[in-house]
Design a protein that fits this description.
The model has no long low-confidence stretch (mean pLDDT about 95). About 40% of the residues are buried. The strands form two sheets. This protein has a three-stranded antiparallel beta sheet with strand order 1-2-3. A three-stranded antiparallel beta sheet has the order 4-5-6. Helix 8 packs parallel to helix 9 and helix 11 packs across helix 19. The protein has about 425 residues and is mostly helical. The protein has 19 helices and six strands. A hairpin with a 5-residue loop joins strand 2 and strand 3. It is globular. Bound molecules: acetyl coenzyme *A.
């Protein structure tokens, strides 16, 4: 017999269905609550609110578990690559060798952006933050592919998905070139997805550039680790905007904007800035930790804490190891890594952080890896966006097919003035 939850409000009693997920996660289905009782629920930050059923990603925050479509993140990080993981997230299954080749080929042929789009870059100041550029350019794609404005799922959607995955990478690399005043480097489709990105980023016409396979491997890993994280802020934004039947380009542009915030994807940039500030303050890690514990200081340890992970972030564990491997391979000794290691050690043994279950998150070590690859700090969040693309797309597609999907329209508890007359 299916379980029911009983809610008593005064002398009113209402039975609400209990929903159990495939990993035994229980939820109370409150859809009928307002209709039956006149009450709504109040849950700022949606801490206890399940906004959807989803079959894409499973997280067990207590035990540090993350799986895409059932596959543990550790195995994907070790054995997959970003293109294959993207296919998995979007299509639900790992591709057969033929499907993989076909997918790769589709990404290859869509790697260039329309020549007219290149002129957009002329309008942006060279000091522009690349997140602003990639969100504007992603939305701009909808002007070149107006057929994608209709969100009805058909072969056109498949094309839009491939265009997005391939072109946002080119847009990101071009925004870097714009910021450093170098000419755009066109994609070279003989390269892999990540290799091609590195080529567009670091090749200059005057010199040859060879993709270092270890760097390519590191980039694949970073993008895989960022590829999805269920109903986080930017993914929920993609779903929110998508629930109004906005097109995929528009929804992804909105997701990029949400990701930009320092409490979300912007944290990887903030971590590096914080580590650099510690370096400038005589490497005084302890002073910073003390500051982060004082609410009035307004300082938080960036790259620490997570709404869902309350034990450890499995992505941080993988990145930390990969960070050492990459820096060893490149022969880089980065003082910021030493500071990060010490900061982690001091914080994880401090009662403030232990009591609040605050541990390094995915952003804590990723910036040091990006820096070693040669990616500047203001591009870190762009890298996150590139990685998160397949996740956003998978959620948008899942939502389009969900019979429960309705326009997202939360309620509120009004606390303002009562009705009053306009002054005569
Ligand atoms: N440094 C110091 N104190 C912290 C930190 C931190 N990084 N994170 C949380 N706390 C404290 C809060 O002050 C609060 O203390 P209190 O209970 O005494 O008031 C307590 O821990 C709970 O924090 P909340 O802000 O309520 O936790 P929430 O789940 O809302 O926020 C978040 C999670 C935004 C990630 C937060 O931990 C944070 O700001 N971290 C730093 C930014 C960061 O690294 N963001 C990246 C997250 S991962 C990602 O988006 C990819």
């Amino acid at each position: 017999m299916s379980k029911k939850a009983v809610l008593r409000i005064g002398d009113q009693e209402v039975e609400l269905p209990v929903v159990i997920g495939s990993e035994d996660e229980p939820a109370v289905d409150i859809r009928s609550l307002r209709k039956e009782t006149g009450y709504v629920t109040l849950d700022p930050g949606y801490v206890n609110t399940g906004s959807t059923r989803s079959a894409i990603t499973f997280i067990d925050g207590e035990n540090g578990i993350l799986r895409y479509r059932g596959y543990p993140i550790e195995e994907l990080a070790e054995r997959s690559n970003f293109v294959e993981t993207s296919y998995l997230l979007i299509h639900g299954e790992l591709p057969t060798p033929e499907e993989y080749e076909q997918f790769r080929q589709r990404l290859r042929v869509h790697s260039m952006i329309h020549e007219d789009m290149k002129h957009f870059y002329d309008g942006f100041p060279s000091s522009s933050h690349p997140m602003a550029i990639i969100s504007a350019m992603t939305l701009g794609l909808s002007t070149f592919y107006p057929e994608a404005i209709d969100p009805t799922l058909d072969e056109e959607t498949d094309l839009t998905v491939c265009r997005l995955l391939s072109k946002v990478r080119t847009i990101a690399a071009f925004s870097f070139k714009k910021s450093v005043g170098q000419p755009f480097v066109y994609p070279d489709n003989s390269l892999t997805y990540c290799g091609n990105f590195l080529h567009m980023m670091f090749k200059v016409p005057a010199e040859s550039y060879h993709v270092d396979p270890e760097v390519e491997r590191a980039l694949n890993l970073l993008l895989i680790l960022h590829a999805d994280h269920e109903q986080n802020c930017s993914t929920s934004t993609v779903r929110m905007v998508g629930s109004a039947q906005s097109n995929l380009f528009a929804c992804i542009a909105a997701g990029i904007c949400a990701l930009w915030g320092t409490l979300h994807g912007g944290a990887n940039q903030a971590v590096l800035q914080q580590l650099s500030a510690i370096q400038k303050n005589d490497n005084d890690v302890k002073k910073f930790v003390e500051l982060a514990k004082e609410k009035e200081s307004g300082v938080r340890l960036m790259g620490f804490g997570h709404r869902v992970y309350r034990n450890f972030d499995p992505r941080a564990t993988i990145i930390k190891e990969a960070c050492h491997r990459l820096l060893n391979h490149l022969g880089i000794e980065d003082n910021l890594l030493d500071i990060a290691l010490e900061l982690e050690e001091v914080a994880v043994s401090d009662p403030y952080f232990i009591d609040r279950k605050l541990y390094p998150n995915v952003d804590f070590y990723s910036g040091i890896m990006y820096r070693a690859i040669g990616i500047p700090t203001n591009m870190f969040t762009v890298m996150f966006a590139l990685g998160r693309l397949p996740g956003w797309i998978a959620h948008w597609l899942e939502m389009q097919e969900d019979p429960d999907n309705r326009i997202h329209r939360p309620r509120q508890i009004y606390t303002g003035e009562l009705s009053r007359p306009y002054p005569q």
